[in-house]
Amino acid sequence: MQQLAESASSAPAVYRRHDPAVLRDALRKMILVRRFEESAEQAYMRGLIHGTMHLSIGQEASAIAATLPLTDADYITSTHRGHGHCIGKGADPKRMFAEFFGKETGYCRGRGGSMHIADVKRGNLGANGIVGGGLPIAVGAALSIHKQRSTAVVLCFFGDGANNEGAFHESLNFASIWKLPVIFVCENNRYGMSMSVERSTAVPHIAQRAAAYDMPGVTVDGNSFADVLDASEQAIARARGGNGPSLIECETYRLRGHSKSDRNRYRTREEIDAWSARDPILRFEQELLRYGLIDAATVEAIRAQVEQEIDAGLAFAQQSPAPVRAELTRYVYTPGAGASDDRYRA
Amino acid sequence: MTDTVRELTYAQAIQEGIAIALERDERVFVMGEDIGVYGGAFQVTGDLVQRFGTERVMDTPISELAGAGIAVGAALTGSRPIYEFQFSDFATLAMEQIVNQAAKLRFMLGGEVSVPLVMRFPAGSGTGAAAQHSQSLEAWFAHVPGLKVIQPSTPHDAKGLLLAALDDPDPVLIFEHKLLYKSKGPVPEGYYTEPIGKAALRRAGRDVTIVATSMMAIRSLEAATLLAAQGIDTEVIDLRSVRPIDRRAIVDSVRKTSRLICVYEGVQQLGIGAEIASIACESEAFDYLDAPVIRLGGADCPVPYNPELERAAVPQVEDIVAAAHRCIGGRH
């Protein structure tokens, strides 16, 4: 049921700053992330994909809103739960599916899998299988930006689990003493695998930790596209202006388990249901409808287009060639640099 | 211009290499603990900060994990970092970034990136600094595909291999023995490189081959001089690089002398010597061996403080001489 649309001029300021087409495309990306992960999960259930996967279902707003202001010159570092970040930075779901299927056409030529998808040409320096692994790398990329006198920024995603790693604290300190253009985006989905933030973290809000490193820290509703976008834009503007790093904590929730081994023993059905009711995609869609920034027919058209893209992506992945055994050790070293032990093999 | 050759210390040679790199490539920078006005714990960077400024010679907090990761991130995005660890022992604080990130990113990303970074590690015992400042951990890193691990033993190689490392698209870890920093040797002026992965024949001989690394290559040469006076003609190969490893040099030498001793400072068991011995035993050199291969490595204990115990914990010249006699005596 469609409510009577309010006028666009009554929309929050953060929406009024953007062309409605940009916001509609953001909604498309959020739906794409959701359907990408649901389809990957189905393919796993059907035995088409091996290994494991970490789904961000329920966290699409933070991924897409935080990356919306970025350009191809900007970098991101991502996490093991990084499919949304990839799509936010412009990755092609076809090549993401191909990576899931371990194919040569995947972003990592089938060598990395779901946990290592990167798209360096678009500034995505990669997901990371190590909790906190991307934080120092993000600071290093920001150091390059500083040395190259560029106005680019680095947006560094990590989860609540990483905020107790030494890498988090060391990285925030470095970024602050050197005033580097990094935006630390914590997707606090309330659990590091099974351990709740309440049990794992000494402060009630991870954003409080920014104070220890003398940078702005804000906690926002991570399921509100507008709130994340607003915070991201402010932090990015600050970084581009040479004023240093910021920390944004997005309070959100993963509706699926940690990975495929999760039996959900550490949380209640009621809790999951309560967060399901705050689904970030439906909220954003309803807001756009309410302010007349989209109409129901366009939403339907977006959903249909996403389905086509998913089907095409899955077909592409299944039909793509697999890597060959003869190339097992390819890509360990860069060719042409005396890199291979084989040159000297007796 | 490489025709002028002067005597420099090992530390001066590294500093000269860094200075040349900073001059010729604006992407290069150095970072590490106390490498600025302090000049580095072993005075390797010296006055480089005065010459190149704090943007190129960057003091870091005592923060090895992020320091190493910043080097990785900078290398991924167009910079050529040189990260100095104050002691190689502190690599334990940065293992995640070195082993999981630097070494694997190129492979995990299907060849889409290279990680052209250089890390320098003052290593080894003999300074009375005890167990947490005296280790030889190069074999750990040589066990990781994706890394290159080198151990220059002369001032000439310290400069030439450093410049080669900076020219290399992949992560290169340089283990510099602390006792070598003040050693002197001829160093050409200007830019030159030494190939990574190529051993150096330091002394040709007929009776026995010693394959040694770093400080142990220097001690093996001293031992060879004593052995020559005792009628034993020793061939000394300075491995220089443990990954990649120069299999050809090892095999060819063993085919010539029929005897092999491996000398290295890292803990003997499960160390570099096992790899050197295996290269001989798995190749055509096996048919030429006239005696069991001997490994001479570090003792099976942490490096002790007491000077006599510390000496006993790593191979000394007299140990190498004795090993050569055992090897020759094993003729059959």
What does the model show?
The complex is a heterodimer of chains A (346) and B (332). With 346 residues, chain A is of the alpha/beta class. Chain A has a single domain (8-260, 270-323), classed as Rossmann fold (3-Layer(aba) Sandwich), CATH 3.40.50.970. Chain A has helices at residues 13-16, 20-45, 60-67, 83-88, 93-100, 134-147, 166-177, 197-200, 225-240, 269-276, 280-290, 296-319, and strands at 75-77, 154-159, 182-188, 191-192, 195-196, 217-221, 246-251. In chain A, helix 2 packs across helix 3, helix 2 (20-45) crosses helix 12 (296-319) and helix 6 (134-147) runs parallel beside helix 7. Chain A starts with 12 loop residues before the first helix and ends in a 27-residue tail after the last helix. The model of chain A is unreliable at 339-346 (pLDDT under 50). Chain B starts with a strand and ends with a helix. The mean pLDDT of chain B is 97. Chain B has helices spanning 10-24, 48-52, 64-76, 95-102, 105-108, 138-142, 155-166, 215-229, 247-257, 272-281, 307-312, 317-329, and strands spanning 5-9, 28-32, 57-59, 80-84, 118-123, 148-150, 172-177, 184-188, 200-203, 208-212, 234-238, 241-243, 260-267, 294-298. The longest helix of chain B has 15 residues, at 10-24. Chain B is α/β, with parallel strands linked by helices and 332 residues long.
Estimated share of beta-strand residues of chain B = 15-25%
Summed over residues and divided by their number, the pLDDT of chain A gives a mean of: 94
Instruction: Please give the alpha-carbon distance between the first and last residues of chain A.
Output: 75 Å
Report the structural category of chain B.
Answer: alpha/beta
Cα radius of gyration of chain B in angstroms: 20 Å
Strand order of the largest sheet of chain B: 3-2-4-5-7-6-12
**Unreliable runs of chain B:** none
Indicate the mean pLDDT of chain B: 97
